[in-house]
Amino acid sequence: MAPSPFAAHHADLAALAHDNRRRALAPRTGRDFASNDYLGLADSDAMRHALAAGIERGLPTGSGGSRLLRGNHPEHEALEAHAARHYGSEAALFFPTGFAANAALFAALPQRGDLVVHDELIHASAHDGMKLGRAGTVAAAHNDAQAFDDIITRWRAGGGAGTPWIAVESLYSMDGDRAPLAALAAVADRHDAILVVDEAHATGVFGPGGAGLAHGLARRDNLITLHTCGKALGAEGALLCAAAIACDFLVNRGRPFIFSTAPSPLMAWLVRQAIEIVATEPERQARLHAVVRHAAERLVPLGVPASGTQILPVVIGDNQRTMRIAGALHEAGFDIRGIRPPTVPHGTARLRIAITLNVDEADVDAMADALAAAMAAA
Prior knowledge:
The chain is an alpha/beta fold and about 375 residues long. The protein is built from 14 helices and twelve strands. The protein folds into two domains: about 25-40 and about 280-375, Aspartate Aminotransferase, domain 1 (Alpha-Beta Complex); about 60-280, Aspartate Aminotransferase, domain 2 (3-Layer(aba) Sandwich), CATH 3.40.640. The protein has helices at about 5-20, 45-55, 65-70, 75-85, 100-110, 125-130, 145-155, 180-190, 245-255, 255-260, 265-280, 285-300, 320-330, 360-375, and strands at about 30, 90-95, 115-120, 135-140, 165-170, 195-200, 225-230, 240, 310-315, 335, 335-340, 350-355. Helix 2 packs across helix 11, helix 5 packs parallel to helix 6 (about 125-130) and helix 13 packs across helix 14 (about 360-375). It starts with 6 loop residues before the first helix and ends with a helix.
């Protein structure tokens, strides 16, 4: 019998299984401590009403093509203008996903001779974009502004003459910690660098009107922010907010933008309504932060450090023990996922507990009790 043409793939999956790192899709069951639907908007009446209003307006469900080939719709442009005002940028560009936005940004904007200095824990989409780009790349120690400064200083001393790019996330999805944005902005100013801040997990949750953790840096020529719409905003897509020249360049050179079918005009309408819902209903943010504080109080006695955000990682270390605990929590009715390498560094397998408005304090109390029992038994 001829060998399977997928023999290498079988072997790779077997190796992942041996290391207890093979992934599989799992259903949505149990109380939600896993999603990024931080404000509980994705399944809310507010968003259903907004969707119904968009349908009533006769908005098309599909765009029919890329933005450059008849796919451009007035709702795309209305969303981009609204996002630029809300997030404090000169312009904005709507992408189908945050992954596509990061891939386009890092592949197209940094030029040959530039240097991208990125946080060592930055998202995979940024890495994929950098691989497609023409600039040099260097990883800096996590959340260490001085490390970014030192790398750029050495690069300049060695003859680096292009533009430095500083790439970070404002809130890291697996650790729940925040970037030192003010210090990084100062580094960018000292070195005539461009600061790129992925606000994926801060949009909607932090800042006035949910404008994110970088809102205090808005209106800077050397700032680019990325706001995903599928997390706290409860919709889909991503908004890249930047100087008009950067957005114009991506329309001309950003292949993930140029060669992708445009997002649905109906989705563009829905995202615009979501931004307004968050901005005009601050009680959603306040309620989330109250549940987050309660969760921290319950989990700190279990050895879980308070992150100060809605993401609370429980670092276990061992892959198998991590998945045993996750399985026990699932059996107890709590959707908490085990996260293993390469998503997180080797030896730091963990449970990622996300606090959303899909749960309340009573749910948190029950989850904390179940977690204590599962950790003791694993």
